[in-house]
Design a protein that fits this description.
By secondary structure, the protein is α+β, with helices and mostly antiparallel strands. The protein has two domains: about 250 residues, D-Maltodextrin-Binding Protein, domain 2, CATH 3.40.190; about 230 residues, Dipeptide-binding Protein, Domain 3 (Dipeptide-binding Protein, domain 3, Roll). It is built from 17 helices and 21 strands. Strands 1, 8, 9, 10, 11, 12, 13, 16 and 19 form a nine-stranded mixed sheet that branches. Strands 4-5-7-6 form a four-stranded antiparallel sheet, with helices on one face. Helix 16 runs antiparallel to helix 17. The N terminus and C terminus are likely disordered.
Length: about 550
């Protein structure tokens, strides 16, 4: 009995010592882990799909942002400003007296990610390829550029078909970056969607359908990134991105969360130590009004419709305050923006709309029929269409009837120039930072007349078919005008025509949001709405490993 007790005692004591020793080892290990610095790489989460990274074919907000970080263009913008600065150029262009010829000096000592040398021939190759391969954004240069040639090892010349004072701003478009002639070919449709070989601060080392890996380019000519690399995770839904950010599985969340998710992150940011970076974006939503279909072929009907739209209701009920009402096609990020629709029609003014409806001849016996089309695959458009219908029928239901129809985006854009839709809700984001990019693509027309409307050109491609000799003249004038004050006055006149004729109705301007976890520094949105990865770094005070990583 005593023998059994002593053996049992030693056995339990041994187990106890073992447990204590194990706890000590775990405590030491945990202490070491706590003292280890966090992974310096940054994990960025998004729901934006990236079908191609070929700059001659990539066309979208997030692919453009990736090219902004992977490549260099001739010109960019000084951080925190909208002032152009040279990138691969060494100075702003020298422009001929007729405004057609641009001479651009180029930077020496720049290497591509594959180690080959950047020079004038490589830059000419990149721009020629952008035009000739016929990708989605090719028209940005194809319709404007007459010739591109190297005039020296590190000097190039671009000649335009017509003067365009904003051309240097266009050269800052993310897709107009230099690419290695060793890695790409010129030829219609010869794209490389899964690779990128440029000169930028990051190089692409891995590309998949749901993830990308960017490494800091060790031979970059400029300032090195503040982090060693970026891991990009593409999530299948905003809910998955939302949860990944909340649990720390990603450091940065951007493009795109829905309104409820953004609201929660904003409400909890102080408690959780999250950062929320927000600003008005360059994305606008508008109604295209088909001037060749009744009732919208009547100016009075278009004016009544413009007066009925309540943008504040859309802001509150669709976006929970996470958008801004828009009263011009030119967004408020530009000084040239004028709230012409607010000035002329108000914002859902019942009295103003009733007056215009009566003047247009509409009554309970002869109601105005509004057939609004929207894109079924864009959640904000779906909800906005329903709110639009409910708000109008609440205030003018005795005089106005609203019918909603939907179509997917791809089909909608294919049919716009065919005049299929009497009224359709669409989005637009500017390709380059200039108000011209929000006027010319809508109001310009290459061929048409006041009687027949626009037969070919920008407004026809949008399905509005608006034609105005005066608008065409003003567009040409502002493209020649070098005085900023005079140019702004020309944009004011163009916006006045927009408000008078109502070929398009601006609805809202989106807000951009970037959410960053605690311990990150250098996360910011530029005034041009670009998001630089190279400024992001972990705080040296952060010693705990991020949960979920």
């Amino acid at each position: 009995m005593s023998l059994d007790w002593s053996q049992n005692y030693r056995s339990h004591w041994g187990k106890l010592l073992g447990v204590v020793a194990l706890c000590c080892l775990l405590a030491i290990a945990c202490g070491r882990t706590a003292q280890q610095p966090p992974n310096p790489r940054i994990v960025l989460g998004t729901t934006a799909k990236v079908s191609t990274l070929d700059p001659a074919d990539a066309y979208g907000v997030f692919p453009g942002n990736l090219l902004y970080n992977l490549g260099d263009r001739l010109y960019g913008y000084k951080p925190g400003t909208t002032t152009l600065k040279p990138e691969l150029a060494t100075d702003l262009p020298t422009i001929s007296a007729d405004g057609l010829t641009y001479r651009i000096p180029l930077r020496q000592g720049v290497l591509f990610h594959d180690g080959s040398q950047f020079d004038a021939k490589a830059m000419v190759f990149s721009l020629e390829r952008f035009i000739q391969n016929g990708g989605q954004p090719s028209a940005l240069l194809a319709g404007r550029v007459d010739s591109i040639k190297a005039t020296g090892d590190y000097e190039m010349q671009i000649r335009l078909k017509k003067p365009f004072v904003a051309f240097p701003s266009l050269l800052a478009f993310s897709g107009l970056c230099a690419v290695s002639p060793q890695a790409y070919q010129i030829g219609e449709g010869k794209f490389q969607p899964a690779i990128f070989v440029g000169t930028g601060p990051y190089k692409l080392v891995q590309s998949g359908t749901d993830s990308l890996r960017l490494e800091a380019f060790e031979k970059y000519w400029g300032a090195k990134p503040a982090n060693p690399g970026i891991d990009i995770q593409v999530f299948s839904s905003g809910a998955n991105l939302f949860n990944a950010f909340r649990t720390g599985a990603v450091d940065v969340a951007t493009q795109t969360l829905d309104s409820d998710q953004i609201r929660v992150l904003l409400e909890r940011r102080a408690q959780q130590g999250w950062q929320a970076i927000a600003g008005p974006s360059n994305v606008i939503t508008l109604l295209t009004v088909n001037l060749q279909q009744p009732p919208w072929n009547q100016p009075a009907a278009r004016a009544a419709l413009a007066a009925m739209i309540n943008r504040q209701i859309l802001k509150d009920r669709v976006f929970q305050g996470q958008s801004d009402p828009l009263f011009s096609l030119i967004p408020t990020i530009f000084a040239a923006s004028q709230p012409v629709f607010d000035t002329r029609y108000g914002d859902g003014s019942v009295a103003k709309a009733r007056q215009l409806l009566t003047q247009a001849g509409y009554s309970p016996r002869q109601p105005l029929l509004i057939n609004l089309w929207y894109r079924s695959n864009v959640p904000s458009n779906v909800l906005a269409a329903m709110v639009f219908k409910a708000a109008i029928e609440r205030d003018w239901g005795d005089t106005v009837q609203v019918q909603l129809d939907s179509v997917e985006s791809a089909t909608a854009y294919q049919n716009l120039d065919k005049g299929v839709y009497p009224l359709i809700m669409l989005d637009w984001y500017g390709d380059f930072y200039d108000p011209d990019n929000y006027i010319e693509p809508f109001l310009a027309c290459d061929k048409g007349s006041a009687a027949a409307g626009c037969q070919s050109g920008a407004s026809a491609s949008w399905g509005s078919f608006f034609y105005s000799d005066r608008a065409n003249q003003l567009i040409d004038q502002q493209r020649l005008e070098t005085d900023p004050t005079q140019r702004q006055q020309l944009f004011e006149q163009l916006q006045a025509i927009l408000g008078q004729q109502v070929p398009f109705i601006p609805l809202w301007q989106s807000k951009s949001y970037v959410f960053a976890g605690k311990g990150l520094q250098g996360v910011r949105l530029e005034p041009t709405q670009q998001f630089a990865f190279w400024t992001i770094r972990r705080s040296t005070l952060q010693t705990q490993i991020t949960p979920g990583r």
